[in-house]
Every structure is written in structure tokens, then in C-alpha cells.
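Researcher: Go.
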Amino acid sequence: MDPLPYPPWALILLAGTYGLIVGSFFNVVIHRMPLGQSVVWPPSQCPCCGYRIRFLQNIPLFSWILLRGKCKSCGTGISAQYPLVEGITGLAAALAAVYFMGAGYGHDLGFKIGATYLVLASIPIFVIDFRHYLIPDMLTYPGILLGLGLSFLPGGVGALQSLLGAGGAALFLWLVGYVASLLLKKEAMGLGDVKLVAMAGSLFGLQTAMLGLIVASFLGCLVGLPLLALRRLDAHHHIPFGPYICLGMLVSAFMGNGFLDWYLGFLQW
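Model: Structure:
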């Protein structure tokens, strides 16, 4: 018998719709959080004229198309970022549903929820960290608590492993940043990165978080070294580490065993 109570296409559509709604909220976070504004109040409004956006003008993705990318009140252009973030979040949620109904069906419930949270939360982290070198606490703190809560579910990483993952991975990265700061005589690692690693550790455990850091460092070097050679990086221009942490943790969570096998084989070669 089919273990799914509803047709797969309906669940994928539901996940995609949920992703669009979450993506709309992410746009609020991306715009307001770096400004120190509340993401709850006031309700959605045009940042130029203050026009209160009505419900039918705030439907994810479709309203931007119907309004032709302009505010209905003042005619100011609405950034393409809004439909892009909504569309990418919706697509990510739909793809996560496809994966967990297919190749990833055997994963435990805690992993499915935690991995989906990381996939979706990575989207605003990418945008905000690249723009402002900030990682929102409102994304990492709930993720840490979520990981600790999910650890009590059957088949999960376990409460002890979740605590060790959050504390151990965060302490390791903080020590690396502290030593680097002493050597460079300036701040080398933001606490936002440390909290992001703690979130991954609480969701997936210490081993996955540490492997994710290795992958993140490798990816960061792939981008950073060419930029250094081209003199695009200096004391005032540097690459944010948060997006690479997200990518590294996703690779480690979904492909950790395969990546370890490849890496060990590469070393032997």
C-alpha cells in the first residue's frame, strides 16, 4: 500500500505553496532586520510612500506580476528580489518534498524537519550576509531550539548528541576565530557564524557539523583565493562566511557519508 495519505503531486503543491508564503516573510526579514525594524509590525507597506499593502496585493509571486513590479500607490518600482526570493523558497520547499518522498523517504522525521528548516533558512541568510555581513539571530536561535527539540524524536540524533553538536561545533569555530583575531589584530569571525554552526550542530550532531565546516572552508577558499589573487579582497572587502557554512552543512547533512568516502579515497590516491 502507498504510505502517503495523499497523491504526491498534492503534497508537492502544498509544500511549494508553503514555501511561497515563507519566502514572502523572508523578504520582510531581509528588508527590515538589517535596519533594526520589527518584522511583525507594521504590516506590509511600501517603503517609499508608506502605502499599506492590501491582501490581494500581497500574494506571493503573483501580486508582483499583476502589479508589473510597481507600487499601486506611488508607482515606485518593486525590486525583483521579492519574487525571486519567494519563487526560490517555494521551489526549494517543493524539491525538499520531492526528495523526502523519494530518495530520502527513509530519513527519520527529525532529520526531515531539521533539513527542511536549514534549506529554507539558508535563503535569507545568503542575501543578508552577502549584503550586510550579518546573520539574523531570529533564524539561528529558533533553529538551535528546534534541533534540541527534535533530538527527542525516535531515530533522531539524541539529546546528548544535539547538545554536543551545538556546543562543540560553536566552541571550535569561536576558538578558530579568536586565534585568527589575535594573529590578524582585528575581528576575523562574527558571532553570527558561530551561532549558525551551533544551529547545524543541534540539528544534525557534532560529526555532521564539523564535516560541514570542512566543506564550507573548502568552498570559501575556492572563491576567496582567486579574489585575493585579483586583489578584490582587502581590509574593507571580504567574503561572508555564512553562505558557505549553509552550503557546507547541506552537503554534509545530505551527502555526508558519500563525501567522506570520496575524500578518503582522494587522500589515498
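Model: Residues 242-268 form the longest helix (27 residues).
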